[in-house]
């Protein structure tokens, strides 16, 4: 209950006012992995990680093989996990995989008792109805999600009969993103127990020479690499030739326990960490490389020989009350390092905002004026000087010379947290500072503007929608400057900041509230510290279609632009234009035949970009979603718009959810778990909470039942949802990946007859005979008339619907009279039921 209260507080009030709560020690980010066994009640018999008896209390994983095949940066990973139940009673095996946030699941097979159940990808439909039905059957359970940063989780459990085996095969795909001059394949390992035969194999084949191939120390997944020598994976790196290599990691039982020890986890929980392979490829001189195969092409562009553009960086930093304590210390620490990395040719400004906004005057701190709030009702002060952008005396950008950097550091050290979170003024002032420099004809050097906007809370001046709209309007046309938004900690509204950035030519990152926050900030800065080109455009032959994005406002050093499309038999030789340090440049790529099929890479990239656009755009959402769905279904990718379907013979039902509708920013994370048991189907809503507290496991499942859960991106400590009252909230959550379980087309009538045993007694040829007359049941109808009725089975006011359209009350209709008591008539001919209004 306490979690719930905190969660709602944080959602409603915004982080600014609840700093002490946010600093509570139970930080979800700390508790990586070892989740698989949490859901299994038997586990609790164990004491201090010592096995209870010789016979293991959970089915044993005797083999876990993970293999990634990377071709042209596109990686396909298969996880195979084989388990055996050594006990003399049926036990639940939980297959729990953490996969990178940017990966799409592309296949899942469950082998039980020698039989394969193959999942397939399907559109989400009918989900809410089924879900409501499930909830009305009264099943619910809570479950604390565990995490690794920037990851998703996939969980399936299955009951295994005594002495029987099961196997899980999961595959997922992803385009490796070049950052900091290298690609990184991250493989999460967390079987939840030591595994006798554990291996990871990463096979890389590229078309250009591999360079800097290495396997750095294992990571916990929840903090930035600290290069702990003890965590050296001792990987076997085998170079097959210049362009291909295999990297193997095969820790034996003893080594797994040792590593668990280094990570500070229980030996008996086995290894829980990330195995990483990094590499880069040799670049051709400039225009990049176009690879063609089977009518599709991919273009990799990462020019190696360009000098960085001079830049004007405006730091807009949240110093509201909630930043108090560790967070502002970490921000200061990071800023001191970041300031050191500015180049002499750069310029910068330091802006802070809380209830008001201040632009630091580095030459005379006491001259740094506080500009009043834009729309802040909570902290209004009366004796403020009123200025607007035209008549305020704003300091100009400071050149990044040693003297100014030193002064800026003094200013950073003087930052104090206090007040509310008046975001818009901060953004407006920051954008104004850039505009002043851009339009000053005396400026000889043209600098690439960059806005770094950091906040840990929700705005207290305007709604997030208004801020996004106002900022995007203000920041448009030739003045448009990229905004990179950083959400710091769990109180920040990630969704809003993502949208704000995407609509303003930038991207956003989440900074996890943890000991390494300062390192995370520096890491982020590194990504954008070196703009090489601005306004990069790729022009292909007109016959080339299905192109992914071709315009890029900035290209940063260390990253890579990837474009894919359909070229048929035409050889794509685009012209690449952009503005570098020496002015306009025009480049041509080299073209060759690809060593692999690039069609899936194209599909992956297209879906990712469509989904991203969908997040950023106000209009065309449906159209973008439809397009993304089409491709996701064709290529069988599980994404935010498609779901995985697990087929089980005889009895299955669709379960899925719709897309977010309202208040998404208050609800960060909503895993759902569904369970299919014999012919009945129940769903468990999970409490989204990163607080790491103990929560009940799954109810025990009868043999041959299985559950399937997908979870949306990272759990957010501080946001909790109760199961019963916030069912709708669960459906407003984004992005959900809830399973559909295939139905062997059961008719609406069959479903009704199954859940309402009395129905057959009062039904004749589709007509219900009630005390007041005979009416149609209307199983094939949908009636959208809004008819208010007085008495739902829960005794509230509701609206009249057909019986099949109100599954949530079925459980309350135990006998025919229950129905007749709440019956209402639709269109003078249909028997409806008084259905609760959604809150
Ligand atoms: C089930 O599928 C896996 C993965 O494709 C395969 O290795 C295994 O042999 C299959 N098992 C059966 C019983 O068909
Ligand atoms: C390098 O080895 C890989 C994998 O064996 C192979 O596919 C590729 O053709 C080889 N490349 C060259 C240039 O020999
Ligand atoms: C610094 O600014 C304050 C307030 O505007 C002013 O009173 C003071 O004279 C300034 N100091 C210097 C050295 O310019
Ligand atoms: C700036 O302009 C606003 C509105 O035009 C006015 O109210 C305010 O007094 C002006 N401030 C200064 C310092 O001139
Ligand atoms: C379920 O399917 C299996 C084989 O597909 C069949 O043998 C069995 O009779 C079916 N059970 C029911 C209840 O229909
Ligand atoms: C459900 O699964 C069966 C195979 O068990 C398949 O033939 C059928 O097409 C699936 N139904 C739907 C609606 O996808
Ligand atoms: C509803 O539709 C099904 C399938 O089209 C049909 O078999 C059935 O007779 C219809 N029921 C009624 C009451 O119209």
From TrEMBL:
Taxonomic placement: Eukaryota, Metazoa, Ecdysozoa, Arthropoda, Hexapoda
Database matches in InterPro entries: CLIP, ITIH, VIT, VWF_A, vWFA_dom_sf
VWFA domain: residues covered: 312-528
Pfam families registered for this protein in UniProt: VIT, VWA
Gene3D superfamilies membership: von Willebrand factor, type A domain
Stretch forming the signal peptide: 1-18
GO cellular component: protein-containing complex
Record's protein name: Inter-alpha-trypsin inhibitor heavy chain H4-like
Domain VIT: 45-174
Stretches of the chain forming a coiled coil according to its record: 607-634
SUPFAM superfamilies linked: vWA-like
Keywords: Coiled coil, Disulfide bond, Signal
Signal listed as a keyword: yes
């Amino acid at each position: 209950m306490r979690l719930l209260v905190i969660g709602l507080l944080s959602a409603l009030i915004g982080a600014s006012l609840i700093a002490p709560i946010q600093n509570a020690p139970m930080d979800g980010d700390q508790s990586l992995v070892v989740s698989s066994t949490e859901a299994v009640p038997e586990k609790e018999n164990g004491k201090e990680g010592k096995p209870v008896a010789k016979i293991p209390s959970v089915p044993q994983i005797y083999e876990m093989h993970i293999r990634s095949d990377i071709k042209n940066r596109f990686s396909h990973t298969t996880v195979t996990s084989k388990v055996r139940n050594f006990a003399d009673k049926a036990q639940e095996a939980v297959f729990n995989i953490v996969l990178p946030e940017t990966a799409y699941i592309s296949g899942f097979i469950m082998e039980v008792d020698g039989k394969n159940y193959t999942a397939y990808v399907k559109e989400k439909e009918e989900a809410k109805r089924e879900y409501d039905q499930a909830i009305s059957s009264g099943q619910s359970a809570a479950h604390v999600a565990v995490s690794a940063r920037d990851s998703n989780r996939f969980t399936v459990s299955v009951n295994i009969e005594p002495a029987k085996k099961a196997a899980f095969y999961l595959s997922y795909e992803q385009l490796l993103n070049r950052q900091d001059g290298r690609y990184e394949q991250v493989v999460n390992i967390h079987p939840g127990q030591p595994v006798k035969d554990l291996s990871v194999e990463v096979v890389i084949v590229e078309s250009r020479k591999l360079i800097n191939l290495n396997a750095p120390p294992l990571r916990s997944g929840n903090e930035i690499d600290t290069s702990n020598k003890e965590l050296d994976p001792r990987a076997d790196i085998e170079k097959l030739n210049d362009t291909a290599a295999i990297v193997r990691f095969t820790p034996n039982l003893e080594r797994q326990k040792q590593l668990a020890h280094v990570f500070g986890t229980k030996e008996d929980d086995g290894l829980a960490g990330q195995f990483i392979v990094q590499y880069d490829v040799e670049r051709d001189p400039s225009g990049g490389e176009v690879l063609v195969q089977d009518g599709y092409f991919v273009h990799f562009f990462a020019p190696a020989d360009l000098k960085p553009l001079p830049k004007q960086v405006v730091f807009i930093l949240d110093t509201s009350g909630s930043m108090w304590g560790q967070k502002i210390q970490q921000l200061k620490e990071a800023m001191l390092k970041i300031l050191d990395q500015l180049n002499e040719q750069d310029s910068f400004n330091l802006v802070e905002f809380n209830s008001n906004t201040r632009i630091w005057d580095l030459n005379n701190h006491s001259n740094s004026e506080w500009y009043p709030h834009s729309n802040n009702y909570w902290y209004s002060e009366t004796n403020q000087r009123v200025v607007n952008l035209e008549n305020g005396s704003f300091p100009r950008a400071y050149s990044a010379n040693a003297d100014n950097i030193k002064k800026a550091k003094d200013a950073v050290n003087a930052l104090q947290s206090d007040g509310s979170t008046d975001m818009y003024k901060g953004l407006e002032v920051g954008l104004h500072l850039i505009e002043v420099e851009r339009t000053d004809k005396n400026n000889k050097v043209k600098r690439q503007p960059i806005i770094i906007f950091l906040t840990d809370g929700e705005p207290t001046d305007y709604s997030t929608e208004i801020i996004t709209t106002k900022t995007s309007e203000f920041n448009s046309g030739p003045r448009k400057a990229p905004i990179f938004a950083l959400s710091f900690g769990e109180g920040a509204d990630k969704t809003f900041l993502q949208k704000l950035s995407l609509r303003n030519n930038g991207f956003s990152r989440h900074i996890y509230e943890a000991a390494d926050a300062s390192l995370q900030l520096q890491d982020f800065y590194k990504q954008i510290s070196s703009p090489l080109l601005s306004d990069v455009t790729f022009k292909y032959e007109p016959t080339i279609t299905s192109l992914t994005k071709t315009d890029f406002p900035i290209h940063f050093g260390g990253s890579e632009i990837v474009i894919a499309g359909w070229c048929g038999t035409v050889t794509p030789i685009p012209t690449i234009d952009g503005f570098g340090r020496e002015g306009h440049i025009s480049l041509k790529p080299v073209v060759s035949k690809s060593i692999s099929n690039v069609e899936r890479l194209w599909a992956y990239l297209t879906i990712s970009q469509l989904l991203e656009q969908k997040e950023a755009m106000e209009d065309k959402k449906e159209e973008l979603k439809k397009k993304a769905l089409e491709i996701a279904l064709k290529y069988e990718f599980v994404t935010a718009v498609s779901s995985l379907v697990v087929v089980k013979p005889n009895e299955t039902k669709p379960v899925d959810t719709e897309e977010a509708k309202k208040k998404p920013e208050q609800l960060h994370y909503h895993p759902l778990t569904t369970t299919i048991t014999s012919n009945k189907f129940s769903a468990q809503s999970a409490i989204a909470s990163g607080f790491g507290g103990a929560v009940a496991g799954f109810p025990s499942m009868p043999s041959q039942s299985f559950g399937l859960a997908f979870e949306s991106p990272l759990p957010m400590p501080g946001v909790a949802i109760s199961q019963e009252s916030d069912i709708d909230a669960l459906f407003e959550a984004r992005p959900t990946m809830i399973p559909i379980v295939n139905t062997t087309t059961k008719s609406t009538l069959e479903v009704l007859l199954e859940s309402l045993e009395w129905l057959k007694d009062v039904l004749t040829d589709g007509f219900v005979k009630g005390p007041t007359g005979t009416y149609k049941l209307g199983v094939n109808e949908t009636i959208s008339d809004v008819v208010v009725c007085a008495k739902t089975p829960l005794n509230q006011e509701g609206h009249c619907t057909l019986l099949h359209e109100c599954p949530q009350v079925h459980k309350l209709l135990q006998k025919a009279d229950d129905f007749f008591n709440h019956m209402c008539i639709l269109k003078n001919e249909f028997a409806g039921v008084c259905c609760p209004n959604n809150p």
